[in-house]
Design goal:
Arc Repressor Mutant, subunit A, Rna Polymerase Sigma Factor, Chain: A, mainly alpha, 76% helix
Length: 192
Amino acid sequence: MEFRVLKKPTENDLVAALLRNEEAAYAYLYDHYSAMVYGIICQSLKSENQAEMVTQDVFVKIWKNINAFDPQKGKLATWIIQITRNAAIDFLRSKQYKVNTQNQSIDSFVSSDRVDSNLHTIAATTVTAQTNIDTIGIRDLLQALNEDQRKILDLMYFKGYTQAEVSESLGMPLGTVKTKTRAALQLLRGMI
């Protein structure tokens, strides 16, 4: 059975077509999830070029590892968000990122035309990503958490902080950060 996009496919149909390596399914996946992936990455990375590179890397990982997706553990969008988050964090921790950050010239920070263009692009992408995040219900779920839990998850999952960095940033003991993280994730898991 060939994957055809006449109407919005079910998640199971899309995953089945991806497992069969159907080109139309890959195109559909990219068309419908790339803005969300790019928006999440832009929250962590400062450069459009880096964000585009990591976005491409995310889709390669999805395509190569689609057989690891387990619908019993969650939705496809949630799995993609986790891959995206991990890819952004891996890039932020990479030598390439650290070297590029240290070697940037002052001109790359001063050009107001470039800054205005980047801000406009990132703002538009972030709006799209926020819309996709709202669509899958993450924003509503996060509202059920207390303020400390929301801050911790925001730093860890959207900004790429380690638990030790969250502890230092919030002036909170590491054990408390770990406990609040575990409690928040258990609460979210129960709501899903």
